[in-house]
Amino acid sequence: MVSVNKPRLGYEVPAQIGMAEADVETPALVINLDAFERNLRKMRDIAKAHGVALRAHAKAHKSAGVAHQQMKIGGAHGFCCQKVSEAEALVNEGIDDILISNQIVAPAKIDRLMQLAKRATLRVCVDDLRNVKDLSTSAQTHDVTLGCLVEIDVGAGRCGANPGAAAGRIASGIDAAQNLRFDGLQAYHGPAQHFPQAAKREAAFAEMLDKVKATIADIKTRGLDCAIISGAGTGTFEMEAASGIYTELQAGTYCFMDAAYMGVRTQDDQPAVPFENALFVASTIMSAARSGTVICDAGHKSHAVDSGLPLLFDADGARYVACNDEHGMIDDPKGVLDLHDRIRLIPGHCDPTCNLHDYLIGVRNGVVETVWPVTARGKLL
Hints:
This protein is α/β, with parallel strands linked by helices. The chain is about 30% helix and about 25% strand.
């Protein structure tokens, strides 16, 4: 298991292997390793049952230590990254099969992409023929062959070519370009992952699947095959897995879960995402000066609030209701929390929360078992 060798307790590293969880400096990101490993096995088994591959999205955790466990325990065959620098950080730690599930267009970044392609199996997403030309020119200069997926807009309204003929023309352009290889399609609907109503998610998926099928049909008329159909996230992955169309899943948050995904429901208003909360912001009550309110040491510099405030884990009616830079305000009408008490917060959005921390502290049975660096923290280029 990848871990920090003899980390120093204090300002640099919040925990030391072998210490009690209760002694971890806060605020800190803590992983319940038992729950984490159950999540990995559950995703592995679902993917295997449907005959699809798992290309886990590393932007959820940005940690080589977590990625190695996703391969060892969870059956991941490769990973997605969003940025070249993120991929570089993981390749440096032995992760050797990466899809940049994003467009890379700046010349300096394309150059780094090609250098990285000499060290790992690398693919990138494309949605513009002008980008095809630039990638091909650089790939020839570096004497590498780069795999490319045509990204299509399946409903997110973000990146992606129009489905059908527009995407087909890009596929043909990739196939004709020197030192590029057309590998298939990127078809990911980000907003659909968080549609709370099952009917809305299912309708979005049906529309998405029609667009994917139409694009595959157009590409086949051009004499090309789509070996890879990649997409899916934690909120819809079971639909993509069962579609008979998708070949690999790009879910990321499944390994940790967060509060936002807890709001995704089934038709009968049950949790729709079959994973456990495994990632927490450990925090300490630093003030209990007023009745009914306590203050913890984890504000929005400790957890992202773009998807809502964190939830308290197992806190008997106490609620995290507001935050500023370094403080979290907690309503505690029953008076269950007091000065020095330790709490666990379920972050609203795990991806940017991980990017706020240097380390992930893995605990089992109340003891720190591993300390994983957030390898690609701040890697935005």
